[in-house]
């Protein structure tokens, strides 16, 4: 039996009304999420004026490690001794930029060229992988966020990096990074790392030692100057080639 046009009109009208309600509620939900996320980012923001000078604060990663060790005493003790840039070897400052972010002084926190290269690689390999992070992005993650690699964390890292670059000098960003980045299990910052691996201060780090510390950064817990894994030695060779020096992987 055929349905009359009159009987179909109310049904169509009801469907359109339901669809409009669904869309409106969807838009309101998205706006609410954006508002909550903006509030969370605002809460994460530090006192930039205070952060721009003075003592280096504990990073979120260091605090997280302290919490882990409080629950598991078998973890290595925390090693962290922040020092000013003047007390860090010039070799270390140069090598970490070459190894981690060669355009550090050219970009505003986000290296667009590096991101394009990463996306091109992802497409060629038909997989999605994060990469192309600048020193500024790594610092934002270490200071304020968590080790997770989810898209939301990357979104927060993106905005924190842009704000940080507008509030802090490149000199201060590099100083903070070198003092909080992880160089091994429980080892944070170049001063603690140089004392842990060679029993010297950060000011005494040689070119070879700087290369080894930079080679540690992709996976400091497993690949470092103490473990000297195959992956670690490969990184040493790669960084040495970029610097135009002979690699020493003994």
CATH architecture: Orthogonal Bundle
Biggest sheet: strands, sense, closure? 3 strands, mixed
**Total number of beta strands:** 3
Number of helices: 11
- Classify the beta-strand content into a percent band: under 5%
Give unreliable regions as ranges.
none
* Assembly state of the chains shown: single chain
Number of domains: 1
Q: Given the helix and strand composition, which structural class is it?
A: mainly alpha
The rounded distance between the terminal residues' Cα atoms is 88 Å
- Assign the CATH superfamily: Biosynthetic peptidoglycan transglycosylase-like
Q: List the secondary-structure elements in sequence, H or E.
A: HHHEHHHHHEEHHH
In spatial order, strands of the major sheet run 1-3-2
The percentage helix is 55-70%
| Global mean pLDDT | 86
CATH hierarchy class name: Mainly Alpha
What is the radius of gyration?
Answer: 24 Å
CATH topology tier name: Penicillin binding protein transpeptidase fold
The gross shape turns out to be elongated
